[in-house]
Specification:
heterodimer, A: mainly alpha, two-stranded antiparallel ribbon, 2 strands, 2% strand, B: Rossmann fold, Alpha-Beta Plaits, six-stranded mixed β-sheet, four-stranded antiparallel β-sheet, globular, transmembrane (chain A), transmembrane helix (chain A), membrane (chain A), ABC transporter ATP-binding protein (chain B), ATP binding (chain B)
């Protein structure tokens, strides 16, 4: 991690967060490039046999949410022993993970935002319809403004999924056999809010969207505010789990 | 500036019992300590507290007079190297070394020099290393940490004898060049005995002994000479170990009765210090009271 060179004690938490974000994006660059290529070439291939009326980038963006949760959980699970053994405090690690989460969510959010806008132009040029499948009907993103407004919430959603993954990763390290069980309540809350944002069918296991029925009348602004609150709450929970986490004994 | 370490009334409980009970320990700065104990005695638990890998259930752990827990200025200069190291197995060896740069004092050039000397394959993944090479990587990272308190917990496991010897020599050279506090936790007692200044023996979660090496070694003696003379001098003493080659016999005794040293000397026996390992085995013998709770 080049970001670690020449660091100082007061700034190393930020340097590490920056370094992890850079390393993660570098590590997954081919996955990301493959997803981008698929998002543009997929509809082209499908158009040979069917009419294109759904935004491929909507699906790409949704898959990236799960990916974000896995990255957050997996990285934190691996970083806890490595970084504490390397002489970091748990507080520093939690700040570094916060920086990582913000940068990762911003980077992926920006990519999906750009992807959806590029797709808008692409679909327009090809005469296709950029639609999003909702609970009852397909909503067409007719204008640049519609597409931009639709795409703008992705960074916030990535942040919520990142925080969810971080809580589960920290809990899984701390409570070896049972920590992962937090996945169920956390997933239910985040997933239901996510689906309420677009009023769509759950993009994942249907049971996880069970709370959606209570959010039907919330309106988009309230759902987004709720998502922000949940993301913040999960970040606080991850920090709380992390703050006095013991390192596991080494197995012989 | 090297770190001292203090444990005050420290207890560490696990779900299945106490790992450490009411431990009080003072370690001065700039010394090399040996931390000895049988399996499960509490050595690793004690080191984990000093490195803030764990929080004590009760009591205080101070490094350089300050609480170590969540103290970035301290933990960044304390290194506990556990057997096999704490690495991301998917990292390359070079990346694993560079992770050490999170410590402001980490000496990357020194680490890479050691890696070359110990023939570590920088491009290989950590998970592809043999147990011995993994131990070497851990040791290299520990030395290059340039910490003020460096602790090696069974880090030599898997290393062959020449590598262990080279590691001890490098550790000593680094210590001579830059005095700091070192704690070696090991079962290869006689192998490290020559490097130690003080010895801490942990037994069943308590500090059994904390003495200078010479003080411990003077607790007993090794008598060598004609078998009959040795047997006579050692009669009535607690024998820790004995060896015989032809007519020459060597007996390690736990403690001298008054006048024994003089009698042995007048009988022409050679009197040497007691082997640390023999003494350790004797002191931690479960049939003795030791530090039993």
């Amino acid at each position: 991690m080049t970001a670690l060179q020449n660091l100082t004690l007061p700034n190393r938490r930020y340097s590490l967060g920056l370094g992890i974000a850079g390393a993660a994006l570098k590590y997954f660059k081919y996955w990301i490039l493959a997803a981008v290529a698929l998002a543009f070439l997929g509809p082209l291939a499908l158009s040979l046999s069917t009419e294109i009326d759904l935004a491929t980038w909507f699906y790409t963006g949704n898959i990236a949410k799960w990916f974000t949760a896995f990255v957050a959980g997996g990285f934190l699970y691996a970083l806890v022993p490595n970084m504490i053994a390397a002489g970091m405090t748990r507080r520093e690690l939690s700040v570094a993970m916060g920086v990582f989460g913000l940068l990762w969510s911003a980077a992926l959010g920006a990519l999906v935002f750009a992807g959806l806008l590029a797709e808008h132009a692409y679909y327009g040029a090809m005469g296709w319809s950029q639609g999003v499948k909702g609970d009852d009907a397909v909503t067409v993103l007719g204008s640049w403004g519609d597409t931009a407004a639709f795409a703008a919430v992705f960074p916030l959603l990535y942040l919520a999924y990142f925080a969810a993954g971080a809580v589960i990763g920290a809990a899984a390290y701390r409570w070896q056999n049972t920590g992962w069980l937090l996945l169920f309540p956390i997933l239910t809350i985040v997933f239901s809010l996510d689906n309420a944002v677009y009023d769509t069918e759950p993009f994942g296991p249907a049971w996880a969207g069970v709370l959606g029925r209570f959010m039907d009348d919330w309106g988009r602004g309230l759902v987004l505010a709720g998502t922000a609150v949940v993301a913040a709450g999960l970040a606080i929970a991850a920090r709380r789990i992390l703050i006095d986490i013991p390192l596991r004994s080494k197995k012989a | 500036m090297s770190f001292s370490a203090t444990l005050r009334d420290v207890t560490l409980k696990y779900r299945d019992g106490d790992a450490l009970s009411d431990v009080n320990l003072e370690l001065e700065a700039d010394k090399i300590y040996g931390l000895l104990g049988r399996n499960g005695a509490g050595k690793t638990s004690l080191l984990s507290l000093l490195a803030a890998f764990r929080k004590p259930t009760s009591g205080e752990v101070l490094i350089d007079g300050q609480p170590v827990w969540e103290n970035a200025a301290i933990v960044s200069r304390v290194a506990l190297i556990r057997e096999g190291g704490d690495f991301d197995d998917s990292d390359t060896v070079k990346a694993a070394i560079e992770t050490g740069q999170i410590r402001p004092g980490f000496d990357t050039a020194y680490a890479l020099k050691l890696a070359e000397r110990f023939e570590l394959p920088l491009k290989k993944k950590v998970r592809e290393l043999s147990r011995g090479k993994r131990s070497v990587l851990a040791a290299v990272c520990g030395l290059a940490a340039r910490a003020e308190l460096t602790m090696f917990d069974e880090v030599h496991l898997g290393m062959d004898a020449p590598t262990r010897d080279a590691f001890y020599k490098e550790l000593l050279a680094e210590y001579m060049e830059r005095p700091h506090t070192v704690i070696l936790s090991t079962h290869l007692i006689d192998e490290v005995a020559n490097y130690l200044e003080e010895v801490v023996i942990v037994d069943r979660g308590r500090i059994l002994r904390h003495e200078e090496l010479e003080v411990l070694q003077d607790m007993g003696a090794t008598l060598t000479g004609p078998a009959a003379a040795v047997d006579e001098a050692a009669a009535g003493l607690e024998i820790l170990a004995e060896q015989q080659l032809g007519g020459t016999k060597s007996v390690t005794v736990a403690a001298f009765a008054p006048g024994t040293r003089e009698r042995a000397a007048s009988a022409g026996l050679e009197i040497g210090p007691v082997g640390l390992q023999d003494l350790f085995i004797h002191l931690t013998d479960p049939s003795r009271n030791g530090a039993r709770r």
